[in-house]
Automatic annotation (TrEMBL):
<comment type="similarity">
    <text>Belongs to the class I-like SAM-binding methyltransferase superfamily. RNA M5U methyltransferase family.</text>
</comment>
<keyword id="KW-0808">Transferase</keyword>
<dbReference type="InterPro" id="IPR030391">
    <property type="entry name" value="MeTrfase_TrmA_CS"/>
</dbReference>
<feature type="binding site">
    <location>
        <position position="349"/>
    </location>
    <ligand>
        <name>S-adenosyl-L-methionine</name>
    </ligand>
</feature>
<dbReference type="Pfam" id="PF05958">
    <property type="entry name" value="tRNA_U5-meth_tr"/>
</dbReference>
<keyword id="KW-0489">Methyltransferase</keyword>
<dbReference type="Pfam" id="PF01938">
    <property type="entry name" value="TRAM"/>
</dbReference>
<feature type="binding site">
    <location>
        <position position="299"/>
    </location>
    <ligand>
        <name>S-adenosyl-L-methionine</name>
    </ligand>
</feature>
<dbReference type="InterPro" id="IPR010280">
    <property type="entry name" value="U5_MeTrfase_fam"/>
</dbReference>
<dbReference type="InterPro" id="IPR012340">
    <property type="entry name" value="NA-bd_OB-fold"/>
</dbReference>
<keyword id="KW-0949">S-adenosyl-L-methionine</keyword>
<dbReference type="GO" id="GO:0032259">
    <property type="term" value="P:methylation"/>
</dbReference>
<feature type="binding site">
    <location>
        <position position="328"/>
    </location>
    <ligand>
        <name>S-adenosyl-L-methionine</name>
    </ligand>
</feature>
<dbReference type="GO" id="GO:0008168">
    <property type="term" value="F:methyltransferase activity"/>
</dbReference>
<dbReference type="InterPro" id="IPR030390">
    <property type="entry name" value="MeTrfase_TrmA_AS"/>
</dbReference>
<feature type="binding site">
    <location>
        <position position="398"/>
    </location>
    <ligand>
        <name>S-adenosyl-L-methionine</name>
    </ligand>
</feature>
<feature type="domain" description="TRAM">
    <location>
        <begin position="3"/>
        <end position="62"/>
    </location>
</feature>
Amino acid sequence: MSRKMKNRVLEQLKIERIAVEGKCVGHHEGKVVFVSNVAPGDVVDARVTRGRSSFMEAEAIAIHEHSSDRVTPFCSHFGTCGGCKWQHISYELQMAYKRQQVVDQFQRIAKVPLPAVMPIIGAQNTRYYRNKLDFTFSNNRWLTREEIDSGEDFERNALGFHIPKRFDKIVDIQHCYLQGSLSNDIRNGLREFALSENLSFYDIIRQTGLLRNLIIRTAQEDQVMVIVQFGEDDPDGIEKTMHFLKEGFPGITSLLYIVNLKKNETFQDLDVQVYAGKDHIEETMEGLRFKIGPKSFYQTNSQQAYRLYQVAREFAGLTGEETVYDLYTGTGTIANFVAGNAQQVIGIEYVEPAIADAKENALLNGIDNTLFYAGDMKEVLNESFVSQHQKPDVIITDPPRAGMHEEVVEMLLRLEAPKIVYVSCNPGTQARDVALLSAKYHVSRIQPVDMFPQTYHVENVVLLEIKSNDDQ
Ligand SMILES: C[S@@+](CC[C@H](N)C(=O)[O-])C[C@H]1O[C@@H](n2cnc3c(N)ncnc32)[C@H](O)[C@@H]1O
């Protein structure tokens, strides 16, 4: 960036519209300016944080005119915590903006003929909708400007969420609107207990401290899993903590802990100890049961995941005769969900424990027409794999944010399945892949689904149907 621009204040910048990733757009001297944490219609002073020849990024430092789209954020942590960045916009507008993001990305990137994008499927619960939250213990609590300016001493231990872009600072959460009252009680109760017992909170710089991380997962029918990660192998401290949780919160149905002496918080490679209750919780969907262990992935908004899978199943239009490939199957939830409507479903995913969960979930539900394979998609999905199984009539694909590898897209083009149902949490990479697939497919339906109210994230399902030879 031209150094001259950095920190320059752009005065009276009119915020025009929402762009990608929740940022809004204004213009200054003909250049696009991306500004975060504002709303279309605001007029702000914005300090430039980054600049390139064609655009700038800036943060609002003063608001002169408030947009009529603004509503009062309900969370006291809004603006500090990075969790719910769109609380200042009404839910109706959030939904409209999310749909518009899909329209914009497809028009700008896919550049193919499109049907009308359907109105987004909104969430009934716009608060307390997450089934998993991950809190961090830290001895380096984020202090507000007022706290610093007061010159007083404050408690520096904290239990909460990372400040955006700061790995070492944690905002101490008093109430989180993403998970219900038991979750809030457990987090606040454990923090109070740890402070009163002088248990040490983790120091990320020195990599010391007993209490490191707290994960709370819930399922319908009152099942609650709590996982505590300890940064030191201190049997007394661990026993004290776990005993407190067991006695204080009988609603916990799966109480687990992990001693994690590694540099990072991931625990896929570590042993999980069961302190009390079961080693898993169970989610249900349309009579199916899904076993969720501490290392298993499950969509974090269960109610909206159900809506999403219903859309995918409807787009697939199954009659019971089809061979379906479910690519990037995770723990096989979509595969098992559509199995009753297909002849067979084949799921592929590269995380081996997820594939083990997928198989277990099929067994648990008496589903005998699903097959699961672990491996990298571009290696597994090849001609010999297809010749060993039936050619797919329908492909459901739900890749990570980066979208599909080009070689996978090329394989899909060679496979020529009549239908591809493309589920994505990133309409930008989805639109890029749709452009490549347009060599043989046309887009016939586009349905956004809101999985994450109060954030700018949007999930999108696209139905691609093979073109007739005349159209190709
Ligand atoms: C968005 S999730 C899909 C979740 C799943 N469909 C569900 O609804 O629970 C994407 C999945 O792709 C898997 N994945 C990412 N890269 C992959 C690759 N190169 N090959 C195979 N699977 C991959 C991830 O492990 C993750 O489980």
